[in-house]
Amino acid sequence: MRSIPFLPTLIALSLGLTAAQVQAVELDIPAQPLDSALTDFAEQAGIRLLYDASLTRGVSGRQALKGDYSVGEGLQQLLQGSGLTFSIGADGTVTLIPRPDNSDVLELGATTVSGQLDGRRDLPAIYAGGQVARGANIGLLGNQDMQDVPFAFSSYTSELIETRQAQTLADVLASDPGVRQSYGFGNFSQVFVVRGFQLYSDDIAFNGLYGILPRQIISTESVERVEVFKGANAFINGVAPGGSGVGGAINVVSKRAEDTPTRSFTLDYANDSRVGGHLDLGRRFGEDNRFGVRVNLAQREGETAVDDEHSRFSLATVALDYRGERLRLAADLGYQKQRVNEGRSVVYLTTESNTTVTSTLNGKVPSVPDSKHNYAQPWSWSQLEDSYGMFSAEYDLSPSWTAYLIGGGKYTRENGVYASNYVYGADGAARIGRLYSPLDQETLSLATGLRGELQTGPVSHKVNLAANGIWQEKRNAFESTTAGNRGHGNLYEGLPVPVPTASLPSGDLHDPDTTAKVQNKSLAISDTLGFVDDRVLLTLGLRRQTIGADAWSAASGARTSNYQDSITTPAYGLVIKPTEYLSLYANRVESLQQGPTAPNAANNRGTMFAPYRSKQTEVGVKLDWGRFGGNLSVFRIEQPQGVLDGRGNYGVDAEQRNRGIELSLFGEPLSGLRLLGGATWTEAELRGTAGGVNDGNQAVGVPEFQFNVSADWDVPGVPGLSLNGLLLRTGGQYVDTANDYSIPAWTRVDLGARYKTRLDQRAVTFNAIVENVADENYWASANGGYLTQGAPRTFKVSATVDF
């Protein structure tokens, strides 16, 4: 080992290197691409090295590095000519950052970087390949590394969003093997199924806060990351306002200004004639770039790939932030409006038989119409308009303790005339219903808490205290057709029918009265105890949740329910890390939903029941090889359900028990090849059903298996060109609890290409993708007991220029 001169030692210390990192280490790194060389360097030098994979992608190979070098000397050798330098965080983490002048002179600035390169110092680092991050916001626990928490999650980055040309949240989550998507009941809201349970778009968090995002369809133009938490989550996030999310939760992270100014414009086109544009502007300014502004504007309009279906979309968002030494502030303001004319709706099956209609389904689901065929009515339309805003503040009380406050609100105006197909004939014969239901919704949401670390002897502690509250008011009225007034139509012919005669309106259609209020409040505490140098982590926590809900009849204004109850939710989690790349975990957590009220047909009608307590048990293993990682978990979730027994008494005695295995894989195992995929197997069994008739049956809309494989490959010899593909395979699903009706398994393949170049000294990216290449006709989901048809072959192209 050679001696370290005095001056280089001072230089290394000024960069923040620890004493161990100042000492020389023996390195033997063969000639190879930079990203592979950096992986070997981090392992041999024994350091934690973080960087955005896009910074090193395509950088030419490095010369071999062999001999005794300090960390600083070794990195300087490896990074020569790459346009990169490095900085050291307070914890000794080494982070690569772009060199401002692209020179080869090592700048010894005092900048401290804690794991992010794009100005988002509050976000976990991006994993190799750039499509996922190695951490996420775990609600009460804050941002966490994937190896340190006893839960399964995925965090998808803006790079994946851009590669997939994702325009909505559903486009992003198509890449998740544990999530499937359908439409809402009678409208076009995106409903997600996680571990076999519904998650409404109403119940998706925004920067950790419920009730802020647009209600039905969430666009991606202003989204930095999409984080998916797998499993029961009442302790982590509290109860969502819509009461869904038993099997998982989704958090959307907004874009912020980056250290490098953002100036880009994207022009996109999709068949048949949908054209759009997206302007993304952001920059930081002031001393140390403390202030940031990010603006996103988008407009898209035209006919979709479904015949005669027309949509128009507008978005405007502004994100502001300030990052000081101890104080960090942020604010997000947004407006989104979307209108769909003749939108292809979901399909309902009916076995009704009367003097005019006789069902001929006989246990068979109608065959799928042509993928482009539209069975909507020309008089149907839907318009969604949302205005929202939120703020957040964090203040470091000390190096180890941080207090935070988050708050926000949303106003939603929803309107539309919906046409529903109730199919009763094997030949597609259907009755066409009509619903007009204007809705106004206002939401206010708050969260505050304290996070900190302390040491008691050999045991470390990460303590969290939190208080959450959400207040929501809905005002709506409606008019609809009865079964006898529905028009006669056909699923396959799709011929127009006269507007069906509606019953008398329920409520004032022009000025709806309040019909529902939600008030959810909770207090939570947790402690993550670390043993054996934090190789064993035990998480213990409690959340005291109060659920309040009131409802009034739209027609008469009379109160129909007044629910108020409280319950305490415990959580237990264990992580054992026998090696740096292996993490074993287990958890026992719960989800909560508002308890039911006994129906009028029951002997105990009007009786209110305690909140549904869904219990989850899970064990799993996580692997992290630096460039490629994965998660394998085995879980069981037991959700109580209400049932009317043979004596006419209503009770919470039934259950849906979902048992499953999840596998996810991600990263860049080979330079230039990025993989993302996995598989899920789920057995969703009904138990304790009325009279035991449906005991043992599979739950509605839950496929027994689903798997995804996606790849993004840099073509050798053609700098800037990448090819990508996505394969989705989903098992069959039952439409009814008796398991008499089912839809078959389906497969979808998407193929795409991306080319990055420079034109007139400006970076330009061309992107093309074909979804459902084979133009398969398939029922995509039976979630909710109705059918959602898969989209037809859709061709998307876009061009993005940085200016």
Could you describe the 3D structure shown?
Belongs to the TonB-dependent receptor family. Pfam families: Plug, STN, TonB_dep_Rec_b-barrel. By secondary structure, this protein is mainly beta. The protein folds into three domains: 6-98, Phage tail protein beta-alpha-beta fold; 135-254, TonB-dependent receptor, plug domain (Ferric Hydroxamate Uptake Protein, Chain A, domain 1, Beta Complex), CATH 2.170.130.10; 262-802, TonB-dependent receptor, beta-barrel domain (Maltoporin, Chain A, Beta Barrel). Helix content is 7%, strand content 52%. The protein contains eight helices and 46 strands. The strands form nine sheets. It has a 22-stranded antiparallel β-barrel. It has a four-stranded mixed β-sheet with strand order 10-15-16-14. The chain has a three-stranded mixed β-sheet with strand order 3-7-6, with helices on one face. A hairpin with a 5-residue loop joins strand 6 (84-88) and strand 7. The longest helix is centred in the N-terminal third of the chain and has 12 residues, at 34-45. Mean pLDDT is 90; it is low at 1-22 and 102-119.
The CATH architecture of the largest domain comes to Beta Barrel
The overall number of domains is 3
The CATH class of the largest domain: Mainly Beta
Q: Shape, please?
A: globular
Rg from C-alpha positions? 27 Å
| Distance from first to last alpha carbon | 50 Å
Helix fraction bin? under 10%
Question: Which regions are unreliable across 5 or more consecutive residues at pLDDT < 50?
Answer: 1-22, 102-119
